Known about the structure:
Layout (H helix, E strand, L loop, with lengths): L1 H9 L5 E3 L2 H11 L6 E3 L22 E6 L8 H14 L3 E6 L5 H10 L6 E5 L3 H9 L3 E4 L8 H8 L3 E5 L13 E4 L3 H12 L7 H11 L2 H17 L5 H9 L5 H22 L13 H6 L1 H4 L15 E5 L11 E5 L7
Parallel strand pairs: 1-2, 3-4, 3-6, 4-5, 6-7, 7-8
Antiparallel strand pairs: 9-10
Helix pairs in contact: 3-4, 3-7
Amino acid sequence: xxxxxxxWFLAGVNACIAVSHANxxxxxxxxxxxxxxxxxxxxxxxxxxFTPNPGLRYPLQTINIVSxxxxxxxxxxxxxxxxxxxxxxxxxxxxxxxxGDGPKMNILKEMRDKYNIAxxxxxxxxxxxxxxxxxxxxxxxFLNTSLTEAFCIAILEAASCxxxxxxxxxxxxxxxxxxxxxYLAPARPMALISQLxxxxxxxxxxxxxxxxxxxxxxxxxxNVADRTEKIYHxxxxxxxxxxxxxxxxxxxxxxxxxxITVIIYIMHIVLLLFCEWAYPDSSIERAINxxxxxxxxxxxxxxxxxxxxxxxSVNKRFEVVPEPDSNRPASSRFELKRLNSKGEV
Length: 345
């Protein structure tokens, strides 16, 4: 049913964006799309927020394996339940740190009680995103047991923090990191255990800084934004599809679903025509095109509005104070003032 709905709604699109080539192939098959209309732009990570710090590793004198995800069936928690006891039997100095919450939390607690390993399996529960980095930095190895995954940003965050990754070989995960930064295994307990053992054998030779710099060089949100912008321009410059062609495309959705989607499309056209009659072009203020390149190249002219929250040299304390001698309403008579380290404006 979801495939059919996807086919309905994506029948007339000019372009789609997938986060991995596996995601692209999946979308092509499920929504019956022309693969030439699907562009691949991977997700990214803010490497300035996910920096390595081996000094945060705790407990000490142990090999810490971290897993942070939503505890659901899709995330392979059942695999985790099989892997943890087997690893702890062979490696008593391993310590598991599991962050996240969900409907599968109970089976992890039952597993922990059954094998009496509460001192070796730490369940943190739900984590605010700003705490994820500190949890990742506690570990040597990151374990991902997802059964399906289009990309997996969690692996990127872990690698950016200098963790060696072990993951199931599903979806777009093989495309995320170079082979020397991740061990992949089929979604089966014994295969994952084997790859975890290989990772455990390499923990003394993990190039933490190099891994962080590799992620920095491969992934930036600026690159994602630039590539997305190019796709928008490509669509804008492409020949426009007329209404009749779109109706033919929608009609090809099926004997029953085709006519239904055509009727819905015609209803949208009628609604838009009514809106154009009720709110004509002459009553709408036109937006002025803004030259983004001129803005970026001339910070002295426009001012620099890119305030970096994570910059340590900038004190991030602010105070909102009433603005005196103003004729504006009391609710809007405020201005923002930055305070220095001494509390002075």
